[in-house]
Amino acid sequence: MIRNRDIIIVGLQPWDIRIGSNCKNMAQELSQHNRVLYVNRALDRISAIRSSDDEKVLARKASLRGDTNDLKPVSASLWTLDPRTVLESINWIPMPVLFDRINLVNNKRLAREINQAAKRLGFSDVLLFIDNDFFRAQYLPELLDGVQETIYYIRDNLTSQPYFKKHGVRLEPLLMQKATMVAANSAYLAEYGAKYNKSSFDIGQGCDFSWLNAALPAVQAFKSPVIGYVGALITSRLDLPLLEMIATQRPDWTLVLVGPEDDAFLASALHQCRNVHFTGNRPAEELPAWISSFDVCINPQVLNGMTIGNYPRKIDEYLALGKPVVATDTVAMRMFAPYVYLCGGPADYIAQINTALQEGNNSHLQEARKAFALSHTWEQCIQLLGVYLEQIQNVEA
């Protein structure tokens, strides 16, 4: 257990993102027994210009002008910081030497703001927790005052994406090497971390299930059987041809897709299929009702560098409602194998959905799924984090 520490969390996601944010939930859990400073993403120069009307950009500008407090209490032991600095937008720079030089300047600007805030809070024995941010936090272990240990947390294989790949393939391993430990939310990402830091561990994934206690609103009913998906409809993560195949081969099934669409989905043949229904982006409070309305839930991921090791949190949300789930077999999905119908390829989907539909009202299966999903808590993640950190400290002692 991590107790009585001063913890600084730096990452890609701001505090004012939705409650499902990994780092936000981890910060709240850590603050039960520690003092925690959550550093919001500093404003960068291009975002300040291009996204001037964005809510988060406006909030950072208000802090810069001194219109709002940069340091804000969330609870008695948890604060957020809106850094009063602007970082240079440098990812376009092709030369590593020049990128590193300006990135060091950015890190120094951010470190100055964090050090000032930490001093105001009286932080001393600091545990630095870096959430996937291998650019803005590259030099923070050396620049921040009082840092005793550094945890690098990886929850997405960002270097598989074009923006982060440009400099991240080189920089992420460097940050992993200097960290005390690497914590990952899947076995695949822990194995990746172990290439650069032998103290790399899978601490699992926590989920927020508070929505299970809320009453379900009414949603549109469709002809049964309903095969459904909830989440962003983007071709970088979902197998669009697979969905088109399901819709055309089984016109007697109703395919309901809940979420915003990218351009490829908007232009797809699915919109001409009478048995396919797009709901568009729906409020978060509606999503459990949509899942409850499905006979079978699916997660038709396309296999790529991002998805193969990505923890599929939506699977926990499906299972928490006891629903049968059919999903693409990935490394990260193996832990779900006893509770999910896994598919090695497109040909398996029709057969596995058929099998799932034959279950009927199997209360034993439903309760097993619920219990498994509900075991994935943030408390468990933080406990594992503390166990592994203590092991490392004992070895070093």
Summarize, please.
This protein is α/β, with parallel strands linked by helices.
Characterise this structure.
The model has no long low-confidence stretch (mean pLDDT 94). The protein is an alpha/beta fold and 397 residues long. The protein starts with 5 loop residues before the first strand and ends with a helix. It is 39% helix and 18% strand. It is globular, with a radius of gyration of 22 Å.
Strand order of the largest sheet: 4-5-2-1-7-8-9-10
Mean pLDDT across all amino acids: 94
Could you say which structural class the secondary elements and strand pairing correspond to?
Answer: alpha/beta
How many strand units?
Answer: 16
Radius of gyration, CA atoms, in whole angstroms: 22 Å
Oligomer: single chain
Features of this protein?
397 residues, globular, alpha/beta
Topology:
Blueprint: E1 6-11, H1 22-30, E2 35-39, E3 43-44, H2 45-50, H3 55-65, E4 71-75, E5 78-81, E6 86-87, H4 96-121, E7 126-131, H5 140-143, E8 147-154, H6 162-178, E9 181-184, H7 187-194, E10 200-202, E11 226-230, H8 240-249, E12 254-258, H9 263-266, E13 276-280, H10 287-293, E14 296-299, H11 313-320, E15 325-328, E16 341-343, H12 346-357, H13 363-374, H14 378-396
Parallel strand pairs: 1-2, 1-7, 2-5, 3-6, 7-8, 8-9, 9-10, 11-12, 11-14, 12-13, 14-15, 15-16
Antiparallel strand pairs: 4-5
Helix pairs in contact: 1-14, 11-13
